[in-house]
């Protein structure tokens, strides 16, 4: 009620109104949609989303003349510039356009301008956007067969039916703000739209999906272009939690997230959350193992999250990505995964090569190394063939295909599994990955079993990278280390950014590499064949401006094979702290891993511990029927099981 | 009182007694004093310190025959082996021998064996140790002019008069346990010695000195050979705090440390601490800026700790080392310093190249890279000349000299300073470093001003390394980065372990390098001259077993100079977190640094901020009188001040 704020807002807006009619494009001209106030229309749209709210707040304080001046000289031309002036920005299915639609729609509601509101909801009728037009990230402007645009089209096309956002959680965190702010304005002003019920309550679903795509510390999985460290605590997620709590059923589980956020909005939604917490209503949002589909029909692959807990209730979390390309911000990383525990990353995803808003690093924008490294396949934990990235690193190829789910198994919390296939990342190559997360009293922490099969039409070099997070302690293969000179590991597709530190050639069909991180010992135990090479490399080559992190990577290379199977067991087996200086269980307890059987149809692998424990994991690679009975003989033993996967403990 | 434990101890000891008489030396034969049970006598002595207590506990439970058997076959020969059998181990002034003396003395007290007790207190009468005998770390066994040995000699020679332990806090933490355990046994059994009052209560002083040699998180400064992460929480420090509290005046300040430790001993001392805390007696141990002398007469240099606090009471802590060599575990790092804030290291000391007790890394012992890298000068934040370490990296040379304090100023908590000189690390070279830590409302955090003067008899290459902890953001010099091949920076004295990543040649007399770490922005602003080179390098070269951390270092090189002055301002100017993505003050506010005057007698430097602030720091390099008046003209301005250092704010 203090007028001084209204006066401040009025005077500022009038100053903008004076300037805007003559304002040229921003001089940077670096964007596919250059703004006027900022370097890209996106930032102008951000501005209008916030300023619409400010205008709404002082609307009745202003004189009619002032309103007329503001609308005629500032808001209408501003909204026209973001829409008619930039159809390639306004008429996309993309987080940018969500901001644009919301900005135009929100100012339309304040101005009671039904033409603009219609434009915001349904897009421009005609846009004349060429089919092959791309944005700054090389993403297509138009989706294939896209006939709709505007806010409702965003709701229809940005999400899978279960709320997964195809660009990934980092960008959903960003887009959820205009989705919900404009959504709320529509609740208040266009109740007949019933926007929160739209598409089976897709906005609510998307918020829950966002909250689930987090590691044990509440940090979003940094898949696709994403800066690490973004979390539940982000202001946009506070907005999301408070609004969904207030408008969508007052789910007490959300209050636990609000408690972690330790902040609420200064409006009726935040007040409701704060009061509910104060009155002891908070329940706990249980993050279970989950499968999300991708694609607006849910048929373009997906994302699997496996969560398991050790006896101290510390979480191990595995996320496997077999999504669609994810548009311009997508990475070329079919069938990749990342692993977390309660201390953070164990097997990391690099995230984006960007220091968001930090001027010294390329003005805070995406860095060249984002394209040349962070997006490339070798920067991820999945197979690279012939040192070329999936889909040759081309968005237009990547957008045509997505992997297929084979099975997802979360009915037994002690034996979780996911299996998916990709037949398109490389022509003539079929890849299938099956990942299991097993909790068992014989292991201190849940064990990862990773079975990655590759079948190619001709002999190829196959590299299996593991971005272990920590310091190398030992390898069972003798290493030949490049002690007095370093060269890049390759020339293209991200390899040019890896310094080749060492190679080893395992002389046994079994290899172990142990590392130390965050007070813990980890070992990856792998099957190997004659001719296999173990490579240790590190980021930072061909990086003139020190943009990259110098993280280590372990690469299992098969130089020339048609069919390959990479079996890897990841064990978190011990701890050490520098105060006690006592290592507890510093060595792996897994003592052997063997392939008992492998064909296109079935794979059986075994692992043993020195204490005599032996497990056999049997996988039906083609048949995902839960009820199918399988039987086969391997090494004179008959194996029988039901369903796509089974773990036999001996 | 439960006999089962007594039975267990008895049976175990009898089994040892059966084995011991025939036990040969441990087969490793890797130590200057190989043990029988373990690879070194030190570990055997550890064993006996603990087992003496066990024997004491069950002494009256045992039959006379059992005692006779244990003493004749196990304890007496064990004590003889540690002393007469290994004079080079027993008759030193060293943490090893403290364990040996305590072990022999403690078992002597249980057995009431006055011959052994005398030996423990006063050493072997004759040892025939050759004067140039060295231990595994290349330290001398005998100190120069050492005529005493035994526990009392340790108390006389291991500490400076104010309790500084010449090997540094990591090893004091280790040695304090036998010092206090045997000390306590002497309190109980030889009260006439009045051991806790010995040498003006040196044991009590040493515990306080230990507690003060910690960063803002309670971690010991990792000077000399030291594994990082060791802290107040160590079991030995719990023993020290509880015992000194109980036996030395019940200082309520110590209770605050006990609270941080969150553990007490299960004896009368721990009980007293717990009860005192429960009854609300805990006060807070205030860690002030401190100067410790080194050398048992306090005349062999020292260690200065400067502590300053920003407006949020977050600490910035600077430790400058100008101690004696520190025996075999000493590093060649005269006039080095390290910098900490509340998040941890800002300018780091490498510590030791060792993974204590982690078998995969050289059995957990010191690694070869400890000698070839961690001890060398370039691994520290001090000047290296002609790519040779101080004293050519030779302990016998290093032990002959120590630097001299010029002045220490802590009377004004907003302007702390330390200045020291070294004239021996290089023949014909005089080095003087003056470090100031300044708190002022114009800077968000205390500012470090570092003035390092070097005067040589002939032209030499001078390298000034800064082991900044974090990720390089920018340099004002254009960098020529080695993008497609890396070579080591040099061949010897640690340089062979540095990959040469980039060089730049500042074209202005002022250079800035900004880095990011732990959510903060830091900048070092330096004066430069024509021909100066900025080198970016990183640890890890010539490291076949991945023993080293791959940490970055910034080196300011002057290729051929007789007199050099390195002026560096270190500013912690801003913050960023990945949740808000908003950088606050990402650029340095210091805009220029100039040398206004420099001679052997005086140095005046100035620094400016863009807002017009200008400071001048005047130093009297030779005269440390607090009352001397100084006056000189520089650039037409007359400067007048009193005392060795002054900061003029304009």
What would you say this structure looks like, in words?
- The structure is a homodimer of 650-residue chains.
- In chain A, strand 21 (629-634) and strand 22 form a beta hairpin.
- Chain A has helices at residues 3-19, 41-58, 64-82, 87-90, 95-111, 114-122, 151-157, 169-189, 198-212, 235-247, 252-261, 268-278, 368-374, 395-398; strands spanning 290-293, 302-309, 315-322, 336-341, 344-347, 384-385, 404-409, 415-422, 429-438, 447-466, 471-475, 479-481, 498-504, 510-517, 520-527, 533-539, 552-575, 590-598, 602-609, 614-620, 629-634, 637-642, 645-649.
- With 650 residues, chain A is an alpha+beta fold.
- The termini of chain A are far apart.
- In chain A, the strands form four sheets. In chain A, strands 6, 7, 8, 9, 10, 11, 12, 13, 14, 15, 16 and 17 form a twelve-stranded antiparallel beta sheet that branches. A five-stranded antiparallel beta sheet of chain A has the order 1-2-3-4-5, with no helix packed on it.
- The mean pLDDT of chain A is 96.
- Chain A is globular.
- Chain A has 14 helices and 23 strands.
- Chains A and B meet through strand 11 and strand 13 of A and strand 11 and strand 13 of B.
């Amino acid at each position: 009620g203090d007028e001084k704020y209204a006066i401040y807002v009025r005077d500022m807006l009038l100053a903008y109104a004076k300037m805007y009619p003559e304002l040229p494009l921003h001089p940077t001209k670096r964007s596919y949609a250059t703004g006027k106030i900022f370097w890209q229309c996106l930032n102008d749209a951000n501005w209008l989303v916030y300023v619409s709210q400010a205008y709404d707040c002082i609307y009745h304080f202003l004189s009619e003349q002032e309103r007329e001046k503001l609308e005629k000289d500032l808001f209408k031309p501003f909204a026209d510039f973001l829409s008619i002036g930039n159809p390639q920005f306004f008429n996309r299915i993309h987080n940018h356009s969500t901001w644009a639609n919301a900005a135009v729609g929100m100012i339309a509601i304040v101005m009671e301008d039904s033409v603009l509101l219609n434009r915001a909801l349904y897009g421009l009728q005609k846009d004349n956007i060429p089919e092959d037009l791309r944005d700054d990230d090389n993403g297509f402007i138009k989706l294939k067969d896209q006939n709709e645009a505007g806010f409702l089209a965003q709701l229809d096309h940005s999400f899978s039916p279960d709320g997964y956002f195809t660009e990934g959680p980092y960008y959903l965190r960003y887009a959820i703000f205009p989705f919900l702010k404009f959504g709320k304005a529509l609740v208040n002003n266009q109740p007949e739209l019933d926007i929160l019920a739209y598409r089976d309550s897709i906005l609510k679903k998307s918020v829950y999906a966002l909250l689930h795509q987090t590691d044990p510390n509440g940090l979003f999985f940094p898949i696709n272009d994403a800066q690490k460290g973004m979390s539940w605590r982000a202001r946009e997620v506070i907005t999301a939690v408070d609004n969904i709590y207030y408008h969508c059923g007052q789910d007490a589980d959300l209050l636990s997230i609000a408690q972690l956020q330790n902040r609420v909005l200064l409006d009726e939604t935040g007040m409701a959350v704060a009061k509910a917490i104060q009155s002891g209503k908070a329940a706990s949002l249980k993050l279970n193992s989950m499968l999300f589909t991708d694609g607006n029909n849910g048929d373009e692959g997906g994302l699997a999250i496996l969560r398991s807990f050790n006896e101290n209730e510390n979480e191990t979390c595995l996320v496997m990505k077999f999504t669609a390309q994810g548009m311009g911000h997508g990475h070329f990383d079919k069938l990749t995964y990342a692993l977390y525990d309660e201390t953070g990353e164990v097997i990391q995803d690099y995230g984006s090569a960007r220091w968001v808003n930090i001027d010294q690093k390329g003005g805070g924008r995406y860095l060249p190394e984002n394209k040349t490294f962070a997006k490339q396949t070798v920067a991820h934990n999945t197979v690279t063939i012939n040192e070329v990235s999936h889909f040759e690193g081309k968005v237009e190829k990547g957008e045509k295909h997505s992997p297929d789910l084979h099975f997802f198994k979360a009915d037994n919390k002690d034996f979780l599994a996911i299996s998916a296939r990709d037949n398109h990342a490389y022509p003539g190559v079929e890849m299938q990955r099956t990942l299991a997360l097993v909790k068992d009293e014989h292991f201190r922490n849940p064990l990862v079993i990773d079975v990655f099969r590759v079948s190619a039409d001709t002999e190829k070099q196959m590299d299996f990278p593991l971005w272990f997070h920590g310091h190398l302690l030992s390898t069972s293969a003798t290493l030949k280390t490049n002690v007095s000179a370093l060269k890049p590991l390759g020339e293209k597709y991200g390899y040019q950014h890896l310094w080749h530190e060492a190679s080893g050639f395992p002389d046994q069909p079994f290899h172990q590499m142990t590392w130390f991180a965050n007070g813990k010992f980890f070992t990856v135990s792998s099957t190997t064949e004659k001719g296999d090479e173990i490579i240790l490399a590190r980021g930072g080559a061909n990086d003139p401006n020190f943009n990259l992190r110098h993280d280590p990577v372990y690469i299992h290379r098969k130089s020339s094979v048609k069919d390959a199977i990479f079996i890897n067991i990841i064990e978190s087996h011990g701890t050490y702290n520098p105060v006690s200086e006592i290592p507890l269980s510093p060595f792996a307890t897994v003592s052997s891993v063997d392939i008992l059987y492998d064909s296109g149809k079935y794979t059986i692998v075994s692992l043993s511990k020195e204490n005599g424990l032996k497990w056999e994991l049997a996988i039906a690679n083609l048949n995902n029927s839960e009820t199918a009975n399988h039987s086969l003989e391997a090494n004179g033993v008959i194996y029988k099981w039901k369903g796509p996967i089974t773990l036999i403990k001996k």
